[in-house]
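User: Run a structure prediction on this.
Assistant: Running it now.
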Amino acid sequence: MEKTDAGTSVGVDDPYTVVERCDFLTDAGKCRYAVEQGDRDPQFARELREDDFQCPVAGDPDETGPSGPWDWADCPHFRCRTRDRTCLRCGLEEVRMAHDEGRPLLEEHHLSYSDGSTRGDGETSHEITVFLCRWCHAKVHDSWARIDDDCTPDPEAIAERESRRAREQEELGFDSAADRYEGN
């Protein structure tokens, strides 16, 4: 199983199995990185420009799934940050309270850590980030729990989410200013 730099588990053998698409991939199958940030890696941008910036992993945009000659791991500028605000492991949905400093229910979980194999400089080779509820996050890092385990949300997680939903519903209720500030 993949490990962090500190030696704790990340909960998956191959981080690329959770990847649906690169953040730089457009719907037309083009590489946004090569177009917008080509000055950072001119050789990469020049090579993709020759093929009209077609992503070498995505391949033909009319085909389902990646059909190009590369895998996600082959691309030097690959990045995948999940934006779905639910826990990948148990499905708990985030409930954020405006102007509340409380700890969020979901936390970013990084599946890819520096291994030195891609760049050789000790930097993170690729950014692959998903969301886990803080209870699943702790289980993944503190035990042999995997991110693809079939599980339900922890009872404490459900209680915290419902507490937030109750406060949210309370805020949506209407009290006239006269009633709200009657005692003042």
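Residues 1-18+81-171 form one domain.
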